[in-house]
Amino acid sequence: MGYTVKDLLESNKFPEMQLINDDSGIDREIKGVRIIEVADMEKFLGGG
Which position among 3, 22, 34, 40 has the lowest Cβ density within 10 Å, counted as fewest Cβ atoms? Predict the structure, then answer.
C-alpha cells in the first residue's frame, strides 16, 4: 500500500491539520490532493 491518510497525519508535516470526519477511511491510500483556500471555510462546512 502507498501513503495513507494515517501516514500523513502522523508525519506532522502540517501540524495544524485536523481530520474533520470520522476515522473510517484513515487507512485509505492518498492518490491525489486538492487544495482550497477560503477565508471563511466554516460556512461551507456547516460550522458557521
Answer: 34
